[in-house]
Amino acid sequence: MEKKITVLPGDGIGPEVMKGALEILDGVATRFGHAFHTTVKKFGGAAIDHSGSPLPEDTLLACKQSDAVLLGAVGGPQWDGNIVRPEHGLLRLRKELNVFANLRPVQVFPGLENLSPLKSNRVKGADFIFVRELTGGIYFSQPKTRDKEGKNATDTLFYSSEEVERIVEKAFELASVRKGKVTSVDKANVLETSKMWREIVDSTAKKYPNVQVEHMLVDYAAMRLISEPSKFDVIVTENMFGDILSDEAAVIPGSLGVMPSASLSGNGPGLYEPIHGSAPDIAGKGEANPVGMILSAAMMLRHSFQLEKEAEAVERAVFETLQAGYRTRDIYSGTGYLTSTKEMVNQIHLRM
Ligand code: ATP
Ligand code: MG
Fold first, then answer.
1. Is the pTM of this model over 0.90?
2. Of 22, 102, 209, 233, which is the most exposed, with the fewest CB atoms less than 10 Å away?
């Protein structure tokens, strides 16, 4: 299979973890006989320094013309005071690619249970994924108003049925190839958008008789997430609820460095990035954890290229490397081998 990938290393540890992911993709290409054509482009702070814009036109064009986009991380203290900031580039890129579905797996890896601030027997076996609506809802709906005196303000929460249908469909598709359960999170006791959301979930469910469905109010879901994280499979929810709950859930594994994400559109290229930021405190030290970036590349293989076997091979290699005791500093707690970014990538590569 031949695929075009636009590579945006970005800032801070972005380029370091990206290097690792590209090495692993090379390994996949060789072992399975694929050709991944990569084009590296400037993005974020690096692009601001170069041309004044965090998302230069040639970068955007390359992204739109590719089959998938891999992103490291953007931002850093040197641009914090700027009017034009690296993060604006990311918001614009998401909008331009129309990526409406944000997928965030939350997984506690065997052997890493002790990193979680929650009791290890509680998080053991947790393995679920958020499907968050990313382009609609209260963050973007119009009107947004503020009166002249500044004493009254309005935000609007709007969803069209089409917007809800496409995200809910995504969740069911995923659940049918995972553990077969969808938890739909809403606030249907007070919100009209949530009532419509529930109806759409129930009617979509009819097409997936093998998928079990539960509805959960967002306040209760916030509690259940940390009291019984292993009970979830696919959690589908609207933009703001997903924003809040997915950050809450990020504490379950106890490490930012191992968590991937994907943002998908209907038929255009998907955007794949680790959930961590540019981690300026460790940039250039060669100790960043490449696992979040590498697992994001595995998500790209699965969701944009439909290369399931290949995605699983990468995930298995990561799993086995962690089980063999290799640890970058962020996940090292006294046992196993303290390893650099480079060594971690080598070990994963060896197990492919
Ligand atoms: P942003 O504002 O871009 O979200 P942030 O400062 O909120 O960034 P991160 O940069 O993601 O958050 O990370 C916070 C801290 O976690 C970092 O300073 C770093 O010490 C640690 N960290 C994050 N990602 C990694 C990684 N891949 N490997 C090792 N440590 C990491
Ligand atoms: Mg942050």
1. yes
2. 209
